[in-house]
Amino acid sequence: MMIFTSVYGVIDGFFVSNYTGKTSFAAVNFIMPVLMVLGCVGFMFGTGGGAVISKTMGEGDGEKANKIFTLIVIASAVLGTALAVIGFFILKPLAVLLGASGTMLADSVLYGKIILTALPFYVLQFEFQCLFATAGKPKPGLFVTAAAGIANIVLDALFVAVFKWGFVGAAAATAISQFLGGIIPVIYFARKNTSLLRFVKFRFDGRVLLKTCTNGSSELMSNISMSVVSMLYNVRLMEYAGENGVAAYGVLMYVSMIFQAIFIGYSVGVAPIIGYNYGAQNHTELKSLLKSGFSFIGVCAVFMFAAGELLSRPLSLIFVGYDEVLLSITSHAFSIFSFSFLLSGFSIFGSSYFTALNDGLTSALISFLRTLVFQVAAVLLLPIIFGLDGIWLSIVAAEVMSVTVTIIFIIIKRKKYGY
Fold first, then answer.
1. In the listed set 178, 200, 215, which residue is the last one of a domain according to the structure?
2. What is the DSSP string of 65-98?
3. Residue 141 CB partners (closer than 8 Å, separation 6+)
4. Averaged pLDDT for residues 74-94
5. CA-CA distance, 79 to 71, in Å (whole number)?
6. Which domain holds residue 39?
């Protein structure tokens, strides 16, 4: 599911870059972090709520798990609507604050406003990617995500390549696909189904919502931090490389989404199993899940690094082959950026592991340090020393520090959780 979501995000960037040019491509990538900040609350509800629900099921209380599930979905939909309204008012001032002007400002704001119309459904889509696994129905979850992704790809081709609507067509295609990705799961769980979860009558429970938000705070922090850091990267790139730098960074983020989706997808997919065994106090299985998880991440990391190094230029060609200067910057940046794939998966899995153990504080701290503190420090310092290369090295340096912190927490918390 995570890979499909990433792929159709990449397709969006491909059509914008190749059919509307690098200015519109830079504008889309410039405003995208702001939209991600607003939409990632769905990931918080999905991962945090999934941990609470799976632990409750592990304790043998299926009816209570259904009530929690219903409460979480309703709360996230309401919050998503409120954030969409807020987004309409803050989008332009924030884009100006970040340094956008002229055509780039107008394009980025228009693109953002179109996407905001589907924000509540984007929140639900993010959420259900996690909750389908918790409900024991990963296949329908994959089907929904694939359907939304295919719709986005087809509509991108139609709106951008055939109708020549430019980035407006790309935004419309994305908004429609997000609507589908959010509404289909609601229909599924509202009807009779064979999953472990269903919508039932519920009462508002502030403590459950607080626990959900606490558990999912690491994922929320991770997504918000990545978006905030992306904004900072864009500001620094405007200083060191201008529009070309922002466009090159956009390519890195699009391709990175697919690579990182493997780490995130595995971590989210295994979380309900960890949470269930934690609720059942099965310490032997918790230890096995930790060991197998790190082994899987390690193997994937090596393959991803090799793929990144070998395919840096071919992947860059797909997006910016029409501009030789931009292509050179992008392929060089990718060859440096690929080193981060060797490390990032371990911190992602470690954070998710603690979320599943209902230890939201530790999980949030790992994510906060990895995606915000370390990266901000690196991107402010390293460019002063290494120039433009320092910006690409910042991500790698942050991952080195993050893995170190993750290992320390794994060791410190071993006795407490018995893994």
1. 215
2. HHHHHHHHHHHHHHHHHHHHHHHHHHHHHHHHHT
3. 1, 128, 129, 132, 133, 185
4. 93
5. 12
6. 1-215
Q: How far apart are CA 401 and CA 174, in angstroms?
A: 35
Contact 400, 339 (CB under 8 A): no
274 & 388 share domain:
yes
252 found inside a domain? yes
CA distance 47 to 76: 12
Query: How many folded domains does the chain comprise?
Result: 2
pLDDT computed for residue 8 by the predictor: 67
Query: Looking at residue 219, what is its pLDDT?
Result: 67
Count of H helices and E strands in the chain? Answer: 19, 0
pLDDT tens track for 88-128:
999 999 888 877 778 888 998 999 999 999 999 999 998 99
pTM value surpassing 0.90: no
List CB contacts of 344: < 8 A, sequence separation 6 or more: 260, 263, 301, 399, 402
In a shared domain, residues 364 and 279: yes
What does the alpha-carbon distance between residue 70 and residue 268 come to, in Å, rounded to a whole number?
Answer: 20
Distance from C-alpha of 238 to C-alpha of 408, rounded to nearest angstrom: 36
In this structure, is residue 275 part of a structural domain? Answer: yes
The C-alpha atoms of residue 346 and residue 350 are separated, in whole angstroms, by: 6
Is there a contact between 52 and 358 (Cβ–Cβ < 8 Å)?
yes
Specify whether 200 is located in the same domain as 262. Answer: no
Q: Of the candidates 67, 79, 55, which has an alpha carbon nearest to the alpha carbon of residue 205? A: 67
**Residue 35's Cα: distance from chain center in Å?**
11
Is 343 domain-assigned?
A: yes
**Segment (H or E) for 401:** helix 388-412
In this structure, what token pair is assigned to residue 195? 């999953």
Which structure tokens are listed for 31?
């405003």
Q: Give CA 50 to chain center in angstroms.
A: 16
